[in-house]
Amino acid sequence: MARKKEYLEEEVIEKAMALFWKNGYETTSMQRLEKEMGINKFSIYSSFGSKNGVFVECLNCYKQKLNVLLEKLLVSDKGIEGIKEYFYDFLEFSRDENSPKGCLITNTANELGDNAEPEIKAVLLKFMNEVRAVFAEALSKEGLSPDDIESKADYYIISMFGLASSSKIFTKDQISTYIESIFNKG
Amino acid sequence: MARKKEYLEEEVIEKAMALFWKNGYETTSMQRLEKEMGINKFSIYSSFGSKNGVFVECLNCYKQKLNVLLEKLLVSDKGIEGIKEYFYDFLEFSRDENSPKGCLITNTANELGDNAEPEIKAVLLKFMNEVRAVFAEALSKEGLSPDDIESKADYYIISMFGLASSSKIFTKDQISTYIESIFNKG
DNA sequence: TTTATTTCTAAACGATTAGTTAGTTATTGA
DNA sequence: TCAATAACTAACTAATCGTTTAGAAATAAA
């Protein structure tokens, strides 16, 4: 007994995510979101509540895309070599047509830092721990001690954070050489 | 034959820098700058022309502080070990009272990225190249081939960028372990 | 002491921000 | 066909953004 919605929430979120990913949270205005999502402010607010609400959904949407790469790492059973491949997969993932966008999660942590809304902070922390857990799982294939697994998981999650940040400003070739250096050690 | 300025530009820039360093460019408003610098908007604009002008001076002020650490690396003559010490020096430098602020240059590159004003972009690029050159100079003490020097300088400048970004969200202990891993290889 | 010059305060500028709301249009069940 | 309901458009908040400006206050040379 009412009018039908003329958009799918999953579809408009995907478009919003592209905008946040490219330009960051603060720079992305509701006005630009309206234009890019193709729907009115009223619709945005009735579907997602606030700009923050849109953003949280975008982070979840982004994480789903990352999950494809993480899934591949999990089933590959390749240990550290699998993590290296994940780094390269991410390098491809974070660039389209030579325009590097980095990682939406890393970008957000960098941009908002401690000033982030508690909800955003919680989402970021959860994501970081999930990725770290996947690294730990991959490392468990290497026959390391539990302590070694933890410390190496720390090392790779920090490397991943640094890589994601760096991939925005250095060239693909520079980053490739960097990835090789990360894994070329005893 | 005129009224005297009631502030020193170097002093108010130092205070502005602390604000930009902590909160980033966009989040730092002219209103907060007035408060923190202790001078009126009129004075800010007559001394520095624009918000961007204030920021450029802050970047230069920040670079001067970094130069103390870079100078130490240059005169130490310790090669790669000197770079490692520089990483630890930076770790101390980027934190006061457990509040990590990262690196103002890295933060800016992360926040503004390609959308940065051309003047800002130029300053960032210049800084990055200067730090890289210092790394290359330190590496020349290791008896490496010119090609090896260049590729290793690339590696350490990217590591430095990643380290600076990471130092904002990981603990001091995690970062210390990370630095050790960077340098523990053949 | 007057006058020219500069810095100061404080109010205002127009543009833009996130968010709201009144009123219209479309859809569905009765 | 008509009333109820939800989604639409578009104008509108109030606040804040970076920037400008008019006028008062202070300084130093004449």
UniProtKB/TrEMBL annotation, chains A, B:
<dbReference type="Pfam" id="PF16925">
    <property type="entry name" value="TetR_C_13"/>
</dbReference>
<keyword id="KW-0805">Transcription regulation</keyword>
<dbReference type="InterPro" id="IPR011075">
    <property type="entry name" value="TetR_C"/>
</dbReference>
<protein>
    <submittedName>
        <fullName>TetR family transcriptional regulator</fullName>
    </submittedName>
</protein>
<feature type="domain" description="HTH tetR-type">
    <location>
        <begin position="6"/>
        <end position="66"/>
    </location>
</feature>
<dbReference type="InterPro" id="IPR009057">
    <property type="entry name" value="Homeodomain-like_sf"/>
</dbReference>
<keyword id="KW-0804">Transcription</keyword>
<feature type="DNA-binding region" description="H-T-H motif">
    <location>
        <begin position="29"/>
        <end position="48"/>
    </location>
</feature>
<keyword id="KW-0238">DNA-binding</keyword>
<dbReference type="InterPro" id="IPR036271">
    <property type="entry name" value="Tet_transcr_reg_TetR-rel_C_sf"/>
</dbReference>
<dbReference type="InterPro" id="IPR001647">
    <property type="entry name" value="HTH_TetR"/>
</dbReference>
<dbReference type="Pfam" id="PF00440">
    <property type="entry name" value="TetR_N"/>
</dbReference>
<dbReference type="GO" id="GO:0003677">
    <property type="term" value="F:DNA binding"/>
</dbReference>
